[in-house]
Amino acid sequence: AFKANRISGNEQIQPDDMTKLEISRSGKSRLIASVKVCVDAAGNVSSATKVGGGTGFASYDSKILGEVRKWRYRAFLVNGKAVPTCSVVQFIYMQK
Questions:
Q1: Count of alpha carbons within 13 Å of 49, Cβ hemisphere only?
Q2: CA atoms of 91 and 78, how far apart (whole Å)
Q3: Are 34 and 49 a contacting pair, CB within 8 Å?
Q4: What is the pLDDT of residues 54-96, one digit of tens each?
Q5: Which of 17, 39, 49, 74 is most enclosed, with most CB atoms within 10 A?
């Protein structure tokens, strides 16, 4: 339901070129980041925080959090009333 209510914002967040190079040099090909996203009653992201260690690349983690904070959602309704809510969103980045 959380994903279905998102009405705008980029969910395909890619690292910048310098970070891609750092990822390549690290030997990693798959990164996973989890972000706790809280949305107010109007559908605006009120907070986005890293859960766990993130991707291991600070600049990419910052980019993910910055983009998520721009997302917009339809209001979440409980008994017909808009309410704030939170969920965890997972990002997986694969690099060859």
A1: 8
A2: 28
A3: no
A4: 999 999 999 999 999 999 999 999 999 999 999 999 999 999 8
A5: 39
Angle at 30 between CA 21 and CA 93, to 5 degrees: 80
Closest CA to 1 of 89, 92, 93, 94: 89
pTM (2 d.p.): 0.92
- Alpha-carbon distance 62 to 77, whole Å? 30
- Of 22, 93, 30, 89, give the one whose Cα is nearest residue 58: 22
- E strands present in 1-96: 6-8, 30-39, 45-51, 72-73, 76-78, 81-83, 85-94
